[in-house]
């Protein structure tokens, strides 16, 4: 039902009216400095948006959504089954990203809905066409850029006997990620690292530097 109400609000003609209806009908807390575009579905229990922007044609389902000043979510993004989505000041999620956890009612051992969180620090940018698997939290620090397109972050995997393995993925500050990088569960990336395009990061990066190749070989 909330999906339907949210969509009907989104097709009303004026930004001020849309914000008014979100706040009155769905009890969201969106200030009037914010801009919420048309044709969105925003389904949440608790929304706090302050001087931030959501573009058009997004599907966003998270129990808790918080967007700080000058943060933005552009268009054609699918964000679903999260406990928390938080964007720090001036952080941006660009176009056509797929960010998804498992439904709260999935009932499979190893899943914990409260651990399905995506947090972006200040001045961080997730560019186009990336995939985030959010069985565990993905924590991204300040001034981190997912450049180009097609990066993947995985927070779960399986043993050969189908036992599920899970682990949060964490990024520090001042990091650049090239196109089509893949990060596996439980990886941590230290402040100041650069990861070249197409790299598969299957173990933590613990020293500042430039990394590339499937072996996470330090270039310099």
Summarize this, please?
The protein has two helices and 26 strands. It has helices at 2-10, 15-26; strands at 29-30, 35-36, 41-43, 46-49, 53-54, 59-67, 72-73, 78-87, 92-93, 98-100, 117-120, 125-128, 131-133, 138-140, 144-149, 152-153, 156-158, 164-166, 169-171, 175-177, 182-183, 188-189, 194-195, 200-201, 210-212, 217-218.
How is this fold's topology laid out?
Layout: H1 2-10, H2 15-26, E1 29-30, E2 35-36, E3 41-43, E4 46-49, E5 53-54, E6 59-67, E7 72-73, E8 78-87, E9 92-93, E10 98-100, E11 117-120, E12 125-128, E13 131-133, E14 138-140, E15 144-149, E16 152-153, E17 156-158, E18 164-166, E19 169-171, E20 175-177, E21 182-183, E22 188-189, E23 194-195, E24 200-201, E25 210-212, E26 217-218
Parallel strand pairs: 1-4, 2-5, 3-6, 4-6, 5-7, 6-8, 7-9, 8-10, 8-11, 9-12, 10-13, 11-14, 12-15, 13-16, 14-19, 15-20, 16-21, 19-22, 20-23, 21-24, 23-25
Antiparallel strand pairs: 17-18, 25-26
Helix pairs in contact: 1-2
């Amino acid at each position: 039902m909330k999906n339907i109400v949210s969509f009907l609000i989104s097709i009303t003609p004026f930004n001020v009216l849309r914000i008014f209806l979100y706040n009155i009908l769905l009890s969201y807390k969106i200030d009037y400095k914010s801009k919420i575009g048309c044709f969105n579905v925003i389904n949440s229990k608790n929304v706090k948006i302050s001087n931030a922007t959501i573009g058009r044609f997004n599907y966003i389902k998270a129990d808790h959504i918080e967007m700080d000043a000058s943060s933005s979510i552009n268009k054609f993004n699918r964000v679903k089954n999260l406990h928390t989505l938080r964007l720090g000041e001036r952080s941006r999620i660009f176009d056509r990203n797929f960010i998804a956890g498992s439904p709260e009612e999935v009932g499979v051992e190893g899943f914990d809905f409260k651990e399905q969180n995506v947090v972006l620090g200040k001045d961080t940018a997730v560019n186009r066409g990336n995939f985030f698997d959010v069985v565990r939290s993905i924590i991204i620090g300040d001034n981190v850029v997912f450049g180009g397109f097609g990066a993947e972050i995985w927070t779960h995997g399986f043993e050969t006997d189908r036992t599920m393995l899970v682990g949060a993925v964490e990024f520090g500050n001042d990091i650049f990620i090239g196109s089509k990088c893949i990060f596996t569960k439980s990886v941590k990336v230290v402040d100041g690292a650069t990861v070249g395009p197409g790299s598969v990061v299957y173990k933590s990066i613990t020293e500042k530097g430039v990394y590339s190749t499937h072996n996470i070989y330090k270039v310099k």
